[in-house]
Amino acid sequence: MNKDKKVLYLTSLLIFAVLLLSLFLPIKDSKISTACLMTVIAIATRLLIRKRTSFSINKREVILLVAVIGVLFVILTHMSGISFGYYRNPYFITTKLLLTTVLPIGAIIVTTELLRSTLLAQKKGLVSLLVFLSCVLAEILSFSNLAGITSFNKFMDLVGLTLFPAISSNIFYHYVSRRYGAVPNIVFRMITTLYVYFIPVLPAMSDAISSMIKLILPIVMMALVAALFERKKKIALKKKHPLSTIGVVLSTAVIVAVAMLVSCQFRFGAIVIATESMTGEINKGDVIIYESYEDQEIQEGQVIVFRKDKKRIVHRVVKIEQMRGETRYYTKGDANNANDLGYRTDADIIGLTDLKIAYAGYPTLWLRELLSGRS
Question: Are 22 and 37 within 8 A, CB to CB?
Fold first, then answer.
């Protein structure tokens, strides 16, 4: 391996390692720190690695396309408030916010895309993978405020609301950067990210729905860019196996389904059984898929998911009684000797169990124990 390749691989690995470490450090303001870090990394990378490549002749058209789609995204997102309602924007631009949030985010976007373009130009598979992972980490650090993952809840927020959309977005950014350079991505990200700070009212869209849009939009855009600007070579089409398309569709469907379940803000949700209170029918480490409770009829013997002391609990209903116009549900874990203290009401019930996936939650439990041991 020559000197240039060594510098390239070491630089890519170092960038990934530094960003990964930053994710687990309790940094007070991840946006400013990430902006400073990415600026230093981008400047050093541009100085150390000078090789460039030519881009598609359609670069200007792609810039115009992503700009138009970005503006349409902003308009449609804001119009969704007609359905969801609006609320006063707590992040509306001020001098302080401009310095501590808007400018750092703008710097992160520019430096990330310059870094991506420079490293992808080298056309090395391992480097491409490392820069992809690094860009995903940079996006998580920049826009999720999850730097310093010290609890299981933070980890689940990371996975359900941030990680999947970041992966989907960076697949699209990688695709565009390799063919058209850094500018189209910078234009699109500036429009779709920074607009929120310049509008006095925002639509009251849930985090889960917003994440789903961010998950699906890049896939649609990548398909659109490919259809409009990529030359379809007959040889490539003949060699392309139909199973590859099926694999992409299935993978996308799995990611969307997992994101929906983890977010627990749709009709169905998922919960990992962390105790042995239901051992027998439901065991520790099982994953329970439940249907959200919307006043469905509940019968004695049914297993429900309810909230108690800010925790989700999966226990069986052993008794139901009407008292003063209120329905009271008494619950018990199958492996427990006594009923749970008190009773549950309709307001406490989250969902009705629908499906069990045996032992699928053990990796999550091990991670939870690991994170608990760190705190």
Answer: yes
Q: Give the CATH fold of the 269-374 domain.
A: Umud Fragment, subunit A (2.10.109)
Say how far apart CA 77 and CA 65 lie, in whole Å. Answer: 18
Residues 171 and 255: beta-carbon distance below 8 Å? no
> Which tens digits make up the pLDDT trace of 335-344?
999 999 999 9
Q: Which pLDDT tens digit goes with each residue over 21-35?
A: 766 665 556 678 778
CB atoms within 10 A of CB 99: 11
Tell me the DSSP string of 10-24. Answer: HHHHHHHHHHHHHHT
Percentage of the chain modeled with pLDDT above 70: 74
pLDDT digits (tens, 9 = 90+) for 194-213: 888 988 888 877 776 777 78
Neighbours of 338 (CB within 10 A): 7
Domain boundaries, given as residue ranges, for the chain: 3-263, 269-374
Q: What are the two backbone dihedrals, phi and then psi, of residue 335, each rounded to the nearest 5 degrees?
A: -90, 0
**Torsional class of 209: left (φ above 0), alpha (ψ -120 to 50), beta (otherwise):** alpha
What is the number of other CB atoms lying within 10 angstroms of the CB of residue 204? 12
